[in-house]
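Troubleshooting: if your tokenizer reports a length mismatch, compare against these two reference records.
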Amino acid sequence: METTSRVGAQTAPSSSTAEGVPAARRTVEGYLRAAFPWYGLDEAFTGPRWLMQVGAAADGTVQHGSTGHGEEPTIRPDASGADKERFAVVVTVAAGPVRRTGDGTGHLDATTVSSAAWLAGSGLLMSTWPAQLDHMLRDDWLAQQTEAAFELADDLEGADWSALSLPVDGVPTPFHYRETEFGWVLAGSAPSGVHIGAYGRGMSAYGLGFSAIEDITAYAH
């Protein structure tokens, strides 16, 4: 795929991940190294906010990362518990053209709205494993579904996506939006030049707004 970069993408959890426990998050230091603004839900959201992970290139350059809002999703053996979770995760992706790698031996794909859609789609899958699957089958399921999310992200004009306008820094902004049996996914670009992806469950995407985060350390706890 030429339009969607998997560089620094989050890794799907293995079946050994502890159930009922939020996925491990990195500290705020990675976020502070980014050369682009981070985005989260705007001030209309008054619930908990928390850090997730950043993704970096081989040379350490931060390329993307996620911020969480609401209840931290957990991997549960009981599907009824997961169904009650209300959360939205915002993925910020630095915009960038095709460029050479640091060692000059290859190139990095351009980061686009499709990159944000891919990261959001795969992120949703990481927190929504079907409870009926046993541990041995979960890795196969995640691999199959993640590849499907990758293909969907490369076809944002396809029938699986619809148009949705949401405010970004107070400006109405077009997004690509799709719903799944596990939650919703959307992706677009901010006026500041970064790409924004988001995914969630239990919170309607239609009422969300995004804004640049003034102090990312406020998300750390």
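Reference record two:
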Amino acid sequence: MKTVNVGGVPEHFNLAWYLALKSGTFKKAGINLRWKDYYGGTGDMCKSLRKGDIDLAVILTEGIIKDIVEGNPSSIVQTFVKSPLIWGIHVAKNSDYQEINDLKGTKAAISRYGSGSHLMAYINAKNNNWDLEEDLHFEVIKNLDGAVKGLSSGAADYFMWEKFTTKPIVDDGIFRRIGNCPTPWPCFVVAARNEFIEQHPEELQSILNIVNVVTEDFKEIPSIDNTIANRYNQKLEDVQEWLSLTEWSQELIDEKTIMNVQDQLKSLGIISNQLPYNKLVKKL
């Protein structure tokens, strides 16, 4: 039985992987799939892909594209969630900041450089016509717990993270959300190390087929809203809103989208060069 290590954030987007694991379908296909939660997000997963600690990652589109351009020997093999990710822009409850433009020139908490929270700070700055060199400053806080400490202590001024994941922290009166910033592209893809793609294409295809069966009918699973609410400490109405906004995909990301992401990352100064479509994506 082939052991395959997969990484992803411990969020409701990835529940389909847990359900597929729980059903035993991977084992029936001769695959010992081992899931690892990455609380540090995209930057942490990119590092693990480079080191070979994981074979696959369910990862933010912009983050993995940036890292492949910078030499990560991995490729995108499928879109996982085709709808945008809605990033909430958060401040500490007692902060003086009331609107997004109040944050101009202040310090953003980010999980690590190259992470989604880092890259989306640039997108938000561009959306608001800030000076990307003068108006962006960063404090590395590693994860969501670090963000709570960082904003509460004043070490950082604002924090961008998926708005439904942070909603319980807002409801508890620790954060205030003062705005949203959706990604201008599909939010999650599945990426795999090139070595793994070359050596185990059949196992990779089986893994994608199994999880795709779950995502195709994910919203029709009986009481899935209650399951998510209980598992991820969410209010039922928030889960129902999230489900209404979220669309999974079973297809490979298209060239136009890949080039759009690279164009935007380059215009923001996040990457210095671009790669052709076939250097970022592998069609199985």
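Descriptive notes for reference record two:
- DSSP finds 13 helices and ten strands in the chain.
- Strands lie at 2-8, 31-37, 56-60, 74-81, 86-92, 107-110, 137-140, 158-162, 175-182, 188-193.
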